Amino acid sequence: MSAARRTPLATALRGWGGLLGIALLALALLVVAPAVLSDFRLGNLGKYCCWAIAAVGIGLAWGRGGMLVMGQGVFFGIGGYAMAMHLKLEAAGPGNVPDFMQLYGDGTMPGWWEPFRSGAFTLVAIVVLPALVALVLGYAILKRRVRGAYFAILNQALAVTFATLLVATIKQTGGFNGLNSFPTFFGYNLYDPVNKQMIYSIAAGLLIACLLVVWHLGRSRFGELLVATRDAEERVRFLGHDPANIKLVAFVAAAVMASIGGAMFAPIAGIISPSDVNAAASILLIAGVALGGRASLLGPALGAIAVGYGQSALSESFPNHWSYFQGALFIVVILLIPAGLASLPPRLWAALPRRGRTRKAATA
Amino acid sequence: MESFTTPLLTGTSTGAILLIAALGLALTFGQMGVINMAHGEFLMAGAYTTYLTQQVVSSADVSVLLAIPVAFLVAGLLGLALEAGIIRWMYHRPLDTLLVTVGVGMVLQQLAKDLFGAQGDPVREPGWLQGNLTVLGYHWPYTRMFTIVLAVVALGGLAALLKRTRFGRQIRATVQNRDLAETMGISTRRVDRITFFVGSGLAGVGGVAVALASGTNPTLGTSYIIPAFLVVVAGGLGQLRGTVLAAWLVGVVTAFLTDWFSGSTAQVITFALVVVFLQVRPQGLFTVRTRGLA
Amino acid sequence: MSRGRDYLEVRGLTVDFDGFKAVDGVDLTLLQGRLHFLIGPNGAGKTTLVDALTGLVPGTGLARYGAHDLLGLKPHRIVRAGVGRTFQTATVFEELSVLQNLDIAGGVHRRAWQLALPRRGVPAYVDDALDAIGLGDLRDRPAGVLAHGQKQWLEIGMLLVQDARVMLLDEPVAGMSAEEREATGELLQRIGRERTIVVIEHDMEFVRRFADTVTVMHAGRVLTEGTVAEVQADERVQEVYLGRTTDAVGVDPEAVAAEAAGEGA
Fold it and tell me: Is the pTM higher than 0.80?
């Protein structure tokens, strides 16, 4: 009976513990980091935060929903390119055409660029476009009970296709170079360090917001159903739910988060190109989530930040060997600690007092 | 007419390479539920084996023929090492296997870059493959014909192995019911290992065809792995004829679409077609009854 | 007592596996307020029948419940229509607590958007089910630590939360102790008054003790139907259970099925 009474308290604490973790991360990202990091380092951290936003979504879809979303670069790209298109148009000025179109093309702009002149339209598109794409694709795939490896491969095929399409459409999307050099962000000069810090804060704030959404979902009935679907999809059917719908919600949420991450990435990195959204980029996002702990609350975000940091640090010192590290990361983490680094502290915690107890028992 | 026969032949020979790659994938996936994302890098290893064979045996006429068994062995041994070193520890986690092999693929790719340089190396075609077969005024390059022949031989060899040999019966028994096969005295561990060897070896043979078609390149695996998987997805598991038909269709359809539109548009349409196809036939073209989508 | 107000009508139900008819033209009328038992030797098609009624395998014929033909519905729609089932091996969510398991089954009581809300307190329907299955003391334990019998009760509790008006239970007392069987039987009698309950069972002792109506299946068909006494007196049933098939003794299965259908009506 003591266990029966203790468990709800522990559950409640775990729920609030998650909130505490988010609060600590918010403190670190929004207060400490801007105070101690140089502008350059803060900009880098901003990029990692954007990846972390996408990673939080992956944690939801993959960690809790069991869908290996290996093509999140596509949604990252939708948000990133939508934002970048707006910024290019802002830079060109009203009625004018982005510079690269005069360079590579005949100086005419495709009609579908036109609405992105509006900042409001762009912001709506960053949320609605990926949601629509994920809804249509997810409906087509999940309703036909395509899952497991098939789901993962189709996702990656989508990322490959998307990147190929971008590279091929140089006149419309800048091709291999992507879209770059944005002088302003909604009227704010991007060369001003104060504005840079503001954009960083927006990205970090959005990361915290996404974490709060996932924290809330984790406590909701939907969160329970999602995990139940991951573990026993057929059983959930006999609870009167269509598991495809439950997964679809998580897939769409993950897509929207990836898109938001991409949208902030473009102004912070100053560029969005096919190499930021292709299959390799999608897999790098997965690497971060796996490292941090796919099913944990903070793991995906912290893992993505760590992988981002590792990539810049290692490719600075060993430019040619990042691939080895990344490959080894996958092999070691997935093989040896599949639940990620987030699973280590609880495991150590559980191991410690037991050792104490056995020692006591031995001396007694 | 030329606008019809050229994509048809190009597509058929692309389909032939896809088929060789997909056969190995389907074998390991069907047998063990393992998605080997490093399969594309085994293809790349086969291509570099062809290149290296040519460095040792300077006569291109001989070296290409010699490269076929050597590439099979090299890629097969790579597969065997992968199975013994990593995959056998995680058979109960198929999705995680997929990710681990992604990591292995990255390492192999970087290794190839370090060993052979990031630029690709050309492979000389043997004299007996130069020129065209001219039938009714149409030109059929011998290299493409050779790729198709190679695929037919690989297919025939695999079919014979599965249908005619004792080992083939053991593989099929393990695919259908692993536990039962085990109780009947089949060492499923051994079957797994040899299946992985054969499946990976086939990728090596595919690599020879790739090397002849487009030379070597550290990243060539990445351009074949996804189409090869789409072939496996569309072809369904457990039936060779599904894989054959799907490979040929993906190859030819992509070739025609490339001819009509552009390479990238063709890729987009092919992807859309596979998704639409899955709406109609989620189990692929042909399937063994008891196997649904994983 | 409101017997017969609510019923499940099965007509000509056939499940064809590539030419093998696992269920072959079954007619059944299952009335509310009685404990129906479905018995028969292994491979008689009992579980396949339940699978077809719950959308797990495709069947042809008619399975009418209220305004629905169950054979045309997807599994989750069948559940929403008020038809629930359990499985031979109890499948509860092992990591969730008993309470959470019951709660997660309550989808019929909620609109989709309400899923986004965290759980606050224990809904009345969950509390009622918890009382009915007598697991109140274990409500916060993870379901994985429950004994086999308790898991079966939990599954029945989940059906109660689902508001299943028709319950199809696949061998609920297999592996239970004598006391647990007794408790299960009494539970089924209690909840069965307002529901249509069908139990697949092999344990004849349990059948004799609790069955109101028994249907005997053999080779995909209904062999006979009646009270326990009637069924036990039937020679064909004894033959089937002694391992001699109807074909072996020269009885035309068609005729047997027609006869059985005649008796059932």
Answer: yes
